[in-house]
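Our collaborator T.R. sent over the components below with a one-line note: 'Predict the complex.' Nothing else. No constraints on interfaces, no templates requested, no preferences about which chain binds where. So this is a plain run: every listed entity goes in together, and whatever single assembly comes back becomes the starting point for the next discussion.
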Amino acid sequence: MAEKKSTTKKTESKKDTKKVAPVKQEVKKQAAAPAAKPKAEEAPAKSPIDNLAKAEDARIGVFICHCGTNIAGSMDIEAVQEAAKTFPHVAYVDNYKYMCSMPGQTVIHKAIKDHKLTGVVVAACTPRLHEPTFRTATKDGGLNPFRFEMANIRDQNSWVHMHDREGSTDKAKDAIRIAVAKAALLQDLHPKAVPVEKAAMVVGAGVAGMQAALDLAAAGIKTYLIEKDMSIGGRMSQLDKTFPTLDCSQCILTPKMVDVGRSPNIELMTWSEVHEVEGYIGNFDVTIRKKARGVMTPKEAEAKGIVGGGCNGCGDCEGVCPVIKPNEFEIGMKPRKAIYVNHPQVVPLIYTIDFTSCVKCGLCVTACGPEKRAIDLEMKDEFVKVKVGTAILATGYDIFPIENKQEWGYKRYENVISSLEFERLICASGPTGGHLVRPSDGETPKRVGFVLCAGSRDNTGTGKPYCSRFCCMYSLKHAHQIIEKIPGCVPYIFYMDIRSFGKMYEEFYYRIQDEGAKFIRGRVANIIEDKATKNLHVMADDTLLDRPIDMEVDMVVLAAAIQPAADTNRTRKLFGVSCSSDGWLLEAHPKLNPCGTTTAGVFLAGVCQGPKDIPDTVASAEGAASAASIPIHMGEVELEPYFASCIPEKCAGCGMCVNLCPYSALSLVEKDGRTVMQVTEAKCKGCGTCGGFCPGGAIWMNHFTTPQIVAQIDAFLLGGEQ
Amino acid sequence: MSESGINHKFAFYLGCIAPNRYPGVESASIKAMKKLGVELVPLKGASCCPAPGAFGSIDQSVFYAMAARNLVLAEQMKMDIALVCNGCYKSIWEVNHKLKHNKDLRDAVNEVLKEVDMEYKGTINVYHTAELLYNDKFIGVDKIRDSITNPLTGARIAVHYGCHLTKPHKDREFEKEVMLNTEHPVWMEELVAALGATPVEYRNKMQCCGAGGGVRGYDIVHALDITNEKLINLKEEKVDALTDICPFCQLQFDRGQIEIQEKFGVSYGLPVLHFAELLGLAQGMSPQDLGLDLHAISCEPFLKKVL
Ligand SMILES: Cc1cc2nc3c(=O)[nH]c(=O)nc-3n(C[C@H](O)[C@H](O)[C@H](O)COP(=O)(O)OP(=O)(O)OC[C@H]3O[C@@H](n4cnc5c(N)ncnc54)[C@H](O)[C@@H]3O)c2cc1C
Ligand code: SF4
Ligand code: SF4
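Returned assembly:
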């Protein structure tokens, strides 16, 4: 060990004993549990305070991490170490460059044994990052892992007070003193193992959700795939070709869609939404709302006694339906009926009635006929309950309403379209059979302007501050497509910088340059329509030639920003998942746990977490599926033992807490002839609402006990006196 | 409506260009607004707003302090400010907004104001008269239509909005709540139609007049080049007049046509009127009352059409 090392064998002074006085009073009557002797299989104590740690017996080790220069660069580690030696209960102090490394953890193991420590304090980064690491180290040293307490001297200290060496040094001393005070009173705790339901749920059936579901199913896990739309495939099913390989989106996606429809382990529920979620990792009870579709699948028909009936996708109904509406899948560029499918290749091939426009004439019922009897115009929403062990959110994205960027005239000028509209227009199965035409006159354009970062990387307050990540690449693809399909047509790409970061992407960029696409580095300020010709003047600043530019084109394609799918917010809240300020769902750690969330058992896949192209989306989906299958394959998970406990001798049985608990974890029971509160530990989330409220102080919040918190406050308030 | 017919009173901030070059803007605003239930009470002792480009880009502390002093004068009258110029709006509205939301800035400004025994308190709001005219909370298009005695029937009128009233979009509350469109607004066209005239759209109507931001003072040829481009686009639509809501834009379009003739040798002869002047005409004020003879470009051809 290259670091300076010092040990201390300080025992508590009188003054120290006085300092912890309030704690001592609390624990006086209780028998002390022998410290440093884990009793994993111990029968539950009658009262939670029966096996309290006794502060007098505490021997705490303090381990200060440099985090390279992250911490050591902004504070005086030696001074912190010297101060720590003087704190009550501290039996040993050490510091190391990277406490989380193997040698760092070995320092902890060794010190626990050599110095008979009863508790460990590591002053380092955050519990979010390394609490699990140091709990394991504490356990490996022979202590109960919950005998560990962390002092955050990096994120909440050295990083914020980078230029105040003295201040951060003092603050670190305080943080450690407070942590030591708590560590002296820590108890052995034993996580509860709960069985995990051998089933998973995936919400959203775009390419991310489909891939995740296929992987889970392949791993032998029953998977419920919930999709709010009538069919699966998400945005990818609207695309024509895919960069950089230019393979056809349908050709690579449809086989997967068929596999999803066919997999015996996948229960696909389209036209459905998550309605309610209860429970916790291993045991989520999810209620799904199956929206009234108006049309029965063969299975549903059979259940109703219509043998051999149900929708076979023949489309006879569609022919007779008198209602005409714009088809959303084709972004309104093609009509549909009130009974319809998005496109002919949908999975599942079951028609759906849009009840907001259906006039209930019943013509479709007659057309469907007495054999199939698939249509039920009076169908109502249905609620289905399923139990799953883990869940993956894969709710994808929507296109930002680019008409909000008024300067480009989307929805005002006919020949300004969005990239997604371009995909449909250039696609052989799209509304024009793959012919790119100007909406104003149906003519083939000869000059097409592409506006990149349309609404992305935008700090005006109207657009989105982030990069939408795939628009550069798909615009290059679009440029290639028009050069290929329309002889003599020139794409003009207005860009800020081209982000072609993936495998074979930069090469693709060069290829498109060679094919003759014109690149103009400058953000488009304004687009003006020529009233007579409906041509467009793209006004920009050519920042490479340093001159303003007015480029007349026949058509403009806006590479619109993306945003989280509508309803993402409601759905994420049901699963207790947070989001960042821009609405994308928040991962547990941006680098080390990109698929996990802070809710155990809930994972993220695809664009719902932030913009991703298809390769990254699929990779993230496979990661999420793998992570979500682990608890299921383990068969049981351990719950953090932070539950509330009732101290029966103090409980008056008033029952106030029962109504307060947001998770319905409390009930009143008869015990020894008295009414007392009882906690269902698996339901308790440790929020502390009841503990803070109980007028008799009868609720004991494990790991956040009143004596522990009081000791922390005292250590802070009285601490300066020593 | 109160007995006198007056529903709202505002401290009337004139600015510099209106009273010096286009006095009709002042008289028309006061008279026309009164007919619409709004009394404009002179804001006595006011200074230059100060001009946002000229002052704001050179010395911020002078800029803030001067604008704040004008605001304090209105605070002392316990009245919101109404003004007739986009440039004044940019200075006074924006400084008021910033001072209300930034305590450090407010303290610094008050430190300066102390020397003249003043204190900025943040008790009033600032409005452009165009905004009062359009917003039904104050006046509204219907009321204007009802007040017209001399409809400007048959006149093709184009609108120049100017920049500072609607931009920057992200902190113009009025733009967000009432006008709803920064890049292609049509509310002024509604006002023009209320006077009985035909509003005319033209190419790149939201382009700057060319003068703002100190460009006129710094590089007159460049400024006129922009103005010229606008005039070309306006000529294309065969308009009878251009209306604006900013005396500075008006100066650029009106006097600018003379300068363009001198420098580029083209003449347009396009009458340029502040919306207040148009409103005055439509309510029956005479061209003399409005001082239209003081315009650099004769308003005669237009007047012939509408009177
Ligand atoms: C114009 C354009 C061109 C593109 N071209 C390419 C390309 O060439 N190559 C490439 O790699 N990438 C391309 N992309 C990016 C590609 O579309 C995405 O990477 C991919 O679609 C992301 O898949 P996803 O499953 O995460 O999201 P999505 O495709 O959005 O799927 C999400 C699914 O979840 C459903 N859903 C949403 N909310 C809920 C809810 N609350 N409950 C239930 N279901 C819900 C939706 O209906 C949808 O089916 C392009 C994108 C655009 C806009
Ligand atoms: S007619 Fe009946 S079976 Fe055929 S597509 Fe319509 S609903 Fe399905
Ligand atoms: S700690 Fe919270 S969740 Fe647990 S029982 Fe008390 S109120 Fe309920």
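Summary for T.R.: The longest helix of chain B spans residues 60-77.
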